[in-house]
């Protein structure tokens, strides 16, 4: 099972980036709604759409999928 | 050589081997809480815990555990370790929980029918919806006593009494513009006298005998509630909520594991995976106690914890530590089995 994104659906809101518990532990500033200072996080919004950077760090908890308003990020 | 046969039905599975003995392992996904005890205890690494967080949140539709039937040696250890009876292992059709030579976790949940007052507190509190309280209520007519009569000659068919009666005891049958029948159902009437007070033409004569003479003509036995409280063993996880909420101490629960649950709130990012996965409603996010106050991020009711470890496995940031210090189990002569069971303890 892996983490997938559909950039066509993505609004670029960044809710998944903030909600992801792993992202916050890697780059605490994302919890304040700022962009990450590193590309070590699982995903980030780049050029207005979501992009996966280190999907191998995903623990498959499903939190991003719970919060995404447009089904643009999911586990499959 | 005898080979293992795996049969998958939706999210459940059976692994079977027919030799001198027929050995079968059956998994019930509905009972499984995703704790991973089976994965830990399996001596050959045949069981793999799925992505339980995503599964309980309905993000993905998968079985909570996977088994490799090529690796499985059909020993039955997973069935012994499972605290919620999601894995059943049978030898020649007999579950090993009924075979004395096999060890068994000691756990139980019971509701004593003689003590139970059928208040349904346990049914409401049970996080697994495992309890059903079936109760018969007494006849309302046997709890009140009085008299009521409506004088049809005086009655003007206004319908006020019918509309106001809190017990729906009065019915007016409108047969024509001026033709009607009015009747009081004495099985429903509680002699509250609302109709009498509301009637604009004083057509209703009623008296409550309980108010004027006391309750001497009521038999207290008629007020008893009877019933039965049933626990669904497949769904029950022995968390102890029923025992805690029972006002008459009719529920008794014995948990299979002892231990402690520690939360590291500095690491916690409040993703809620543990809250969603906990089968016992132990973990919760607190409501703010007053405006502009900050409470703990995550709280626990540890008395209901069964130390299964599902929350620890699902936490993405290692903020939860479940220690199992005691395993209540019937004795076994096999040292290797005892060692496996003891391996569930954490140091």
TrEMBL record, chain A:
Key words of the record: 4Fe-4S, Iron, Iron-sulfur, Metal-binding
UniProt cross-references to InterPro entries, sorted A to Z: 4Fe4S_Fe-S-bd (IPR017896), 4Fe4S_Fe_S_CS (IPR017900), PSI_iron-sulfur_center (IPR050157)
The protein, known as: 4Fe-4S ferredoxin iron-sulfur binding domain-containing protein
A GO molecular-function annotation: oxidoreductase activity
Membrane-traversing stretches: none
4Fe-4S ferredoxin-type domain residues: 1-30, 48-76
Taxonomic placement: Archaea, Methanobacteriati, Methanobacteriota, Methanomada group, Methanobacteria
